[in-house]
């Protein structure tokens, strides 16, 4: 297990030399480093709203079905737009993604997704720009309290959270308990593995406070 904890991040899926250098600037070189790289805030993505009930001007999750094939437009050099329309029983949500041409084929008509982002109103239409999304039921980036990490150019929070999740699974069980059990019980302190798991991916805000 120790070898897995010390594995260079450049050997992790999706982390090549260039991205590895960017992570290194954050002091992240091996998997175990992620365990002590704490989020600086959290986004509560547990509540899923219907399109018409989503609070305008606020970030929230919306579950909706992609209604038609997304379109790709090249506005000018360096700017591409993918537009899609999603629907539920309450209305229509117009989605816009900037410079993510691959999403034209990633969003499949007839399938339901959970979108997380700020809902805006444009006339009677409801819109969301550059939302995070995943297929309904996956629960990796929506339906939970999401950690938000300090980042650098070329490193997304999506990537950082994925690495942190792997670090928690591999490294947290191996961290040594420093405080003796009687002391923890006396002061109501949690075990170190519980602390790391709920600092990165808290099951609720009470667990986060205890961690």
Question: Explain this structure to me?
Answer:
The structure is a single chain. It is globular and about 60 Å long. It is built from 8 helices and 10 strands. It has 211 residues and is an alpha+beta fold. The strands form 2 sheets. It has a 5-stranded mixed barrel. Strands 1-10 form a two-stranded antiparallel sheet.
In short:
With 211 residues, this protein is an alpha+beta fold. The protein has helices at 2-5, 17-25, 31-35, 103-106, 157-171, 181-187, 192-200, 205-210; strands at residues 41-44, 48-49, 59-66, 71-76, 79-88, 91-98, 112-122, 125-129, 132-135, 145-148. The relative contact order is 0.16.
What portion of residues belong to β-strands? Answer: 25-35%
Distance between the termini: 24 Å
Radius of gyration: 20 Å
Strand order of the largest sheet: 3-5-6-8-7
Shape: globular
What's the overall average pLDDT, rounded? 90
Indicate the structural class: alpha+beta
Number of helices: 8
* SS elements, strand count: 10
As a percent range, the share of helical residues equals 25-40%
Encode the helix/strand succession as letters. Answer: HHHEEEEEEHEEEEHHHH
Q: Which spans of ≥5 residues are poorly predicted at pLDDT below 50?
A: none
Largest sheet: 5 strands, mixed, barrel
Record the SSE blueprint:
Blueprint: H1 2-5, H2 17-25, H3 31-35, E1 41-44, E2 48-49, E3 59-66, E4 71-76, E5 79-88, E6 91-98, H4 103-106, E7 112-122, E8 125-129, E9 132-135, E10 145-148, H5 157-171, H6 181-187, H7 192-200, H8 205-210
Parallel strand pairs: 2-3, 6-8
Antiparallel strand pairs: 1-10, 3-5, 3-7, 4-5, 5-6, 7-8, 7-9
């Amino acid at each position: 297990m120790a070898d897995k904890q010390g594995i260079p991040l450049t050997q992790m899926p999706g982390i090549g030399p260039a991205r590895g250098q960017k992570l290194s600037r954050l002091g992240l070189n091996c998997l175990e480093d992620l365990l002590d790289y704490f989020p600086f805030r959290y986004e509560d993505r547990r509540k899923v709203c219907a399109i018409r009930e989503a609070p305008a001007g606020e970030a929230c999750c919306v579950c909706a079905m992609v209604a038609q094939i997304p379109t790709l437009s090249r506005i000018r050099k360096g700017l591409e737009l993918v537009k899609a329309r999603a629907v539920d029983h309450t209305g229509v949500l117009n989605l816009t993604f900037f410079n993510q041409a691959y999403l034209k084929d990633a969003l499949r008509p007839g399938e339901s997704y959970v979108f997380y982002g700020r809902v805006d109103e444009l006339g009677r239409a409801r819109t969301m720009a550059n939302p995070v999304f995943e297929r309904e039921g996956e629960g990796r980036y929506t339906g939970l309290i999401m950690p938000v990490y300090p980042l650098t150019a070329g490193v997304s929070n999506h990537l950082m959270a994925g690495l942190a999740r792997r670090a928690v699974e591999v490294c947290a069980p191996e961290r040594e308990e420093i405080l003796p059990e009687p002391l923890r019980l006396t002061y109501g302190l949690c075990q170190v593995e519980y602390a790391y798991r709920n600092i990165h991916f808290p099951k609720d805000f009470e667990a986060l406070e205890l961690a």
